[in-house]
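Final report, Chapter 2: Outcomes

The project's central promise was a pipeline that accepts a single protein chain and returns its three-dimensional structure in a standardized token representation, suitable for archiving and comparison. That pipeline is now operational. To close this chapter, we reproduce one record exactly as it appears in the project archive, with the input sequence first and the structure output second.
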Amino acid sequence: MKERLDVVKAKKMSIYTGGMWVSLIIGLLYTGIGILMPLDPAEKYRGTEFYEQIAAHPFIPHFWRYIFVVIGFLSLYWINTAVSVVRTKSYKWEGLYRWVTILGYGGAAMLCIEWMREIFIMKVMTLYSSGNEMYRTALEVAAFPVDPDFLWMFGGFGLWYLVTSLLAKDSGIFSRKLNILGILVGLDLVLTMVFAMTDTIIYFEGGQMTVMQITALLGGIAGAVYHIWMFFDMKKNKAAFEASIPTLLEPERLEKYSA
């Protein structure tokens, strides 16, 4: 039995340690995006001028979008880690959690797809004004997003963060305050989807802004704090988690490994 339990512990700790470092990288990447976006000259413009600025200054606009692609890929790893850690101690809401985990994986994958699509569109749109009508029509069709209402990128992804943080809080996994922040991150992403679907706009003197932009910005900041904090929380509690693994296994699973 001991040999089998050692194998289980080694697998769990490998996932735990890898996910801990991935969480830190995700948090730092979100921070990098927060620094780069205000420096992006193209973000001050819309329409033709937007693509002209990208053509003239392509590095920053492309770079922070590639960072989003990397975050999408790393989020697939993080979801796997969080599910493994939470399910070590709690098997509540099994059907619901399997469903939202599928949505979470789909949202992370869609994050990669949509940002890569946008990078491609930015490259070809620089030739929009010089192309013929057929070429422009093809570009307009290609520019239409795969997830136009952000059902996967924000809705599914946010629902996974929400339910995972609720389960972790209920089971005493990670710190209480960290789980509350995770719940807020999940709610923010779901609200961002809602505001994107309704196209809610705030008008003010001299301009306008969609509510989605505000909630997406807040979500990015909260997400960066959450993932960096998660790294330190997991690092602090790593030894305690490792020591608790055999006692957290269900009796029937112990029998399975001892057979």
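Archive annotation: The longest strand covers residues 201-204.
This record, like all others produced under the grant, will remain available to the consortium after the project formally closes.
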